[in-house]
Structure formats: structure tokens, C-alpha cells
Amino acid sequence: MNHYPNIILIAGNGRNVGKTLLSCRIIKHLAELTDVYAVKISSHFHSLDKAVEIIIQSDDFCIVKETLQTRKDSSRMLLSGASEVFYVQCKNQNLLQMFELLQSYFPNDKPIIIESGGLYNYIEPRTLYYIQGEDSSKQKFIRKGGNKITLSPSEATKLNMEEVFPMAELTKTARQ
Predict the structure, then answer these.
(1) How many Cβ atoms are within 10 Å of 129's Cβ, its own excluded?
(2) Strands 148-151 and 124-131
(3) Enclosing H/E stretch for 25
(4) Could you tell me the mean pLDDT of each successive run of 10 residues in the chain, 176 residues long?
(5) Domains and CATH numbers, the chain
């Protein structure tokens, strides 16, 4: 499993537990210091707006560059200060294949915030923040890992942004 020290994954055990809120907080903080990129991955396929910019489309996944200002999570990430945001619809069994293609759209030395439950089963990010809502019946299988931090929705709103990606490391990657 490949390690990606510039990737922060955010997942949770259901809707409305604060995944996008945490993503946007991290993006806003990092965007004041450096370029930051974001991805929202959904395992559900929905019809897309005709105005979207489709980067890659297949039967197994679709990658869209977010350019629209809507109430969608990916649009909120863009409005929070991300340099570029991609919205992805992908079957879980094709996450690794999709991720390998998506990587070519990002620099290796900048933070990438990815909201996805399934990708942690294929890559080793810097950190996975897993937001555990109250509904335990919606528990998702997430592999064990030393870089997994489980938070309640309340803890996620209070997370110290300096601890997410320390400033010293951002300065180091910016110089490379």
C-alpha cells in the first residue's frame, strides 16, 4: 500500500456527521498558507449538470472538475479556498484505478483533502479523520491503521487546524 504524506482523508459513518464541514475547515486553514486541492468521492452515481467539466468518464467512474457555485459539497470545498476540486462518482471496487488516474491532476508537494470512506482501504494517507456519528447501525468497515483518528461530530468541529498539517511541514514542502 503506497503512503501519501500530503493526503488527508475524511470519512464518516453516515450523512450529516460533519465530513464536509471538517474538509472545508481544513481547506480554509491550509489555503491561507499554500495551494490546497480537494476531492469529494461518492459511490453513488447521479445525473450530472450539463455544465460540468467532465475530465474522465467510464462505466466504472466519472471524474468532474468542479467549477460551479452550488450547494454541493464539492462546490463548498471550492468556495473554502481550494485551488482545484474534483467530484468523483466511483464504484468502490474501482477506487484504486480511479485514484491512479486522478493523481496526475495534483502536484505531489501540496496538501490534498479527500472526502471518501473507501479509499483508505487502498492507500496510506497522512491521516484519516473518521467522524463517528451517533447512529452505530451505519458503521462502515474501515481498516485499522495507526494514522486513523476517530472523532465525534463535536470533536471534529473543535479540531485544532495547526495539528492537522503543521506549518513547518507546509513550509518544507513549499520549498521543494
Answers:
(1) 26
(2) parallel
(3) helix 19-31
(4) 92 88 94 94 81 87 82 80 94 94 92 92 93 72 79 93 75 43
(5) 3-175 (3.40.50)
